[in-house]
Amino acid sequence: MMIVMRDGSSDEQVQAVIDKLHEVGAEAHLSRGEFKTIIGAIGDRERISLIPFEALNGVDSVVPIMKPYKLVSREFQQEYSVVKVGPTEFGGESFVVIAGPCAVESEEQMVATAKAARAAGAGMLRGGAFKPRTSPYSFQGMGEEGLKLLALAREETGLPVVTEVVDVRHVELVASYADMLQIGARNMQNFLLLAEVGMQEKPVMLKRGLSNTIEEMLMAAEYVVRGGNAGVILCERGIRTFETATRNTLDLSCIPLVKELSHLPIIVDPSHATGKHELIAPLSKGALAVGADGIMIEIHPDPRAALCDGPQSLRLEEYALLMDELRSLAPALGRKM
Ligand code: PEP
Ligand code: MN
Fold it and tell me: Is the pTM here over 0.90, yes or no?
């Protein structure tokens, strides 16, 4: 539940409520907004309900949170969260484009891609160093060498970088190079990994699982935020349906729905959603139109030679063209780019 404090309540009054919650073994999550101070109480419902909140000084009202996810819900926080990654902001007016190859392959590939990404206006660079592949015989990524090349590409361009962490044992290593940690679709419900990234400071991009509901995605985000890391960005990347013409089925309805349910930013990954380079431009425009906070797309200097996901990667010129189109559309939709 949420304990809403009166306007002008003192720090001591807020602390008294927090102390009461701790006494019954509950967690207190303080949100001091511009207008309202709210304390989210998370723990055993029955024990919390024994506290006579309304009799405590400074308390205005007590409101139950009906959804199973609490901290990430808009019941808990009405205003949308803005997640900062270096100079780039997700969840504000700007529509952010994250671009880069599926996998880091070489210095030449990474630096060329990063420069093209930057030149056309991307806000962030992507590239996988640890790749979660269906086949153990497929290219698994360059590992730490790949992380070093990402850091080099950041130095060359100033773009912050996001890369996937697939295992709890790699969290510290990946966080020492990356500006944002990606939790891939296959790990969306790896609860130990979620708790681990929840305990460190770098923002997290959480991708929707292949067969997960919106509620399950928000519950997964709750694990990260509950750990103390409020910097979470969600990513719709297509879900499994009976349709086989595309790699997955992009659930664009998820975007406005998540905007109602959660204050977290959400972006779209049309590359993994479709598996087809020719569908990236129309679905990127669709993502902008339905109110996504950005997109993440795969681009490559020579998609035919890519070690991973070439068929869904845009050539650098195609990407630059798409960026021009998005830039001309954005103002009509009240967005900046
Ligand atoms: C990726 O973005 O590199 C990736 C592997 O995507 P997903 O986890 O959505 O399949
Ligand atoms: Mn990929």
Answer: yes
